Every structure is written in structure tokens, then in C-alpha cells.
Amino acid sequence: MPKNGANISLTSYDDIFSTEESRQTEQIQQIPIADLHPFKNHPFKVLDDEAMQRTVESVAQFGVLAPLVVRPREEGGYEIISGHRRQHAAELAGLKTLPVIVRNMDDDQAVIQMVDSNLQRESILPSERAFAYKMKLEAIKNQGARSDLTSAQVGPKLTAAEKIALDSDDSKSQVKRFIRLTNLIPELLELVDQKKISFNPAVELSYLTTSEQRDFFEAMQDTQNAPSLSQAQRIKKLSQAGKCSYDAIYDIMGEEKKAEMDRVTIKNDVLRKYFPKSYTPRQMEETILKLLEQWQKKRQRSQER
Length: 305
Description:
Elements: H1 20-25, E1 28-32, E2 36-37, H2 50-62, E3 68-72, E4 78-82, H3 84-93, E5 97-102, H4 107-118, H5 126-143, H6 160-166, H7 172-180, H8 186-193, H9 199-205, H10 210-223, H11 229-240, H12 246-253, H13 258-261, H14 268-272, H15 281-304
Parallel strand pairs: 2-4, 3-5
Antiparallel strand pairs: 1-5, 3-4
Helix pairs in contact: 2-3, 4-5, 5-6, 5-7, 6-7, 9-11, 10-12, 11-12
């Protein structure tokens, strides 16, 4: 049986978002899991991976020690602000209730707290960060003039992007570049998450229209090539000039990249069958170079004859 964590007082990241007065009056309640609902358009994925399995095992043994933060829903039940992974793990572990702190927040306050609490995770996909930044940007803009958007007690107000940058490890320009990724079609954004398209080329491709992105996706599959930054920039210029078609994209994506033209790669298992097992990579390299020198000299003698 999991130990009851309802009476354990923990200092968590969520405490940052409440005042001292509210913390004194807040109480941890045990709420049925069936009454807890995910945050609307929650940008962070809850995956059944190895990390989740470890969380499930921990919850099964000790229970959920850090309470979730939720807010009441008009249609009944509660919307989870932070604790989606804990809720899912508890469900898999067979728990019926969870410790929660109920807070009354408007939509914008809820979005900001939801994003900030989840951005503390160690591993975040580009797509998760992109949509989280976008949601927070819109929430901050909706809040309008606020005293906490100033860089000092008396000073110029920060833009929404500057506010997000201040709360994260990314610069203002990097925040905007992440938000650009939300303009990618799902197929391309998935390739960014899979690291099959690098971040910088992906930002450039986000300026293409939806139909141009679909042409690009098809051309990328047909050529079996990932775009370099320069290729993505050239495709973006074609789009701006109104000349971006599948054929034009295919021609660019079908080019040999300079790095590939300048590099010869021989797999280790191919080389190994020609050398004694005791040979180190360095010895193999030296032997190959000596043989190439002998081959070159032989060719030169042959040409002189």
C-alpha cells in the first residue's frame, strides 16, 4: 500500500507562484483521480517511457508526495495546472485519489504557471518548448500593462518575449525562433523532435506556406536528405519570390552537400577484415596511408612509361 503523502509538507516549484498569505491558507486535499482533467491544449507530452515506469514504481511504493496544483472547472472537476505526469503515474499505479492544492486562477494566470512549472523539466522537446512559449506569450499579452513586466521599479516595460526570456535560459530572439516552429506542419515538427531536421533550418522552413511545406516534406523523403541551413535559406527565398515548387525544392535537396563531397567514410567493420585484430585505429590509418603512397608511386611510374 502506498504511504499517504497528504500530511507531508514539501517546498516545491509551485510555491514560487503563491504569496505567503495564500500559502498559509492553502490546504492539501485528497481529490479522486476521476475528477482531475488535463490542462486544455497542454503542450507537454506525457509519455509511457522508462522515466514514467520509474515514476509509477515510486508512486506505487511511496504514493504521490508532491501535491498537484489544480483549479476548479466550470463544468465540474478540476483542471491540472502542474502534475500531469504524477497524475498519469498514479493512475497506472492504481491510486484512486491524489493530494492536490486547489487555486482559483484566471486563464492567463493558469497558462503562465502551467508553462513555467513544466519548463523546469530536464528534457523538453523542441515542439513542447515552442508551443509552451507561444501560449505564455499570448497569456502575457492578454494581461496587458502589469507592474511585474518592468525591468525595475521605475524603468521601461519589458515586451512579452523579453519577459519569457527573463524566466528561461533562452534569449528574446531564441524565444521568438522557438515560437516560429509552431508554424511548421505536424510532419516537419515531428522530424525536428526526432532530430532529423536541425533547429536552424527548421526555423527557416517555418516561413513556407502550408502547401510549400508539404512539397518540401515530399522532396525530403524522395531525396532522403536532411536540409542544411543554406539549403533551407535558399528554399525560403524561393518562397518569398513566389517560385517555390516541388521541382525547385527537389533540385536543391538533391544536391550533394559540400561536407559529403569532401569526406570519405569507410565503416569500421569493413576495414577490420583486412587487419589483424590487435591493430589499433591509429595503426590501421598509418597502414592505409602507406599503401596509398605506394599505389600513387606505382601510378606515376606507369604514366612515365
